[in-house]
Write a structure and sequence with these properties.
Strand order of the largest sheet: 7-6-5-8-9-12-10-11
Strand content: 15-25%
Number of domains: 2
Order of helices and strands: EEEEHEHEHEHEEHEHHEHEH
CATH class of the largest domain: Alpha Beta
Structural class: alpha/beta
CATH architecture of the largest domain: 3-Layer(aba) Sandwich
InterPro entries: NAD(P)-bd_dom_sf, ODC_Mu_crystall, ODC_N
Oligomer: single chain
Organism: Notiomystis cincta
Subunit structure: Homodimer. Binds the thyroid hormone triiodothyronine (T3); T3 binding inhibits enzymatic activity.
Pfam family, one: OCD_Mu_crystall
Shape: globular
GO molecular function, one term: thiomorpholine-carboxylate dehydrogenase activity
Length: 256
């Protein structure tokens, strides 16, 4: 799969296109499933200004958006973080979540236990490796799903009432990470309504109603409802890559 994600931000005076490849590896591979490159152009004349590592930008900006959603939607006293999946996005989410929030416990589960053990051994803080997804999510206040699942791996009856879920995987209309019970009994937030209704199997196949876009919460036109069980379905938006790429380019330029 080859995706092309162009975007322009007038506020940032930035024009970019991200090229992203996605390969579902049938066997565990050292090559990431997603690889990307961001091209940054001068919006005044179309000149190519920079070629940036889009894989790093994608990992960082996705986790940053999840962190914003979590700050707005998580319960007031969140003590347990659970991550389902142990790939690139698991690491980027762990990094920013442990930097911004204070959790008493971090848990991880992965389909391949060896990868979960490797993750736990390579991050700076203590992580509890769980033998099942159910064990990992039971009692968790914040849950992050960053898997390659095509069928639900997170069930609503496992989830603590009032928990917040960041659903990052299952970016195809026929793929799922979350079951119908969780989707229908949670308040659903998305990054883009249009994208969620055409790309997200969790949203399309469950028939769950979208309550708000994250941007509407940030603007104050929709409430956050952190006292409810909430799901943020993240598919990623090209403008996030644009803002991130311009930030990186400006920081590099200042250093030169």
């Amino acid at each position: 799969y080859l995706g092309v994600m162009p975007a322009y931000s007038a506020a940032d005076d930035a024009l970019t296109t991200k090229l992203v490849t996605f390969y579902e590896h049938l066997k565990d591979s050292s090559v990431p499933s997603h690889q990307a490159t961001v091209l940054l152009f001068d919006p005044s004349n179309g000149t190519l200004k920079a070629v940036l590592d889009g894989s790093v930008i994608t990992a960082k900006r996705t986790a940053a958006v999840s962190a914003i959603a979590t700050k707005l939607l998580m319960p007031a006293f969140a003590e347990v973080l659970c991550i389902l999946g142990a790939g690139v996005q698991a690491y980027s989410h762990y990094d920013i979540f442990t930097e911004l929030f204070t959790f008493k416990e971090v848990r991880i589960w992965n389909r391949t236990r060896e990868k979960a053990l490797k993750f736990a051994g390579s991050v700076p803080g203590p992580v509890r490796v769980c033998s099942s997804a159910r064990e990992a999510v039971t009692g968790a206040d914040v849950i992050v799903t960053v898997t390659m699942a095509t069928a639900p791996i997170l069930c609503g009856d496992w989830v603590k009432p009032g928990a917040h879920i960041n659903a990052i995987g299952a970016s195809r209309p026929d793929w799922r990470e979350l079951d119908d019970e969780l989707m229908k009994n949670s308040v659903l937030f998305v990054d883009s309504r249009d994208a969620a209704l055409t790309e997200s199997g969790d949203v399309i196949l469950s028939g769950a109603e979208i309550f708000a876009e994250l941007g509407e919460v940030l603007k104050g036109t929709k409430p956050a409802l952190p006292e409810k069980t909430t799901v943020f379905k993240s598919l990623g938006m090209a403008v996030e890559d644009t803002v991130a790429a311009k930030f990186v380019y400006d920081a590099w330029s200042a250093g030169n």
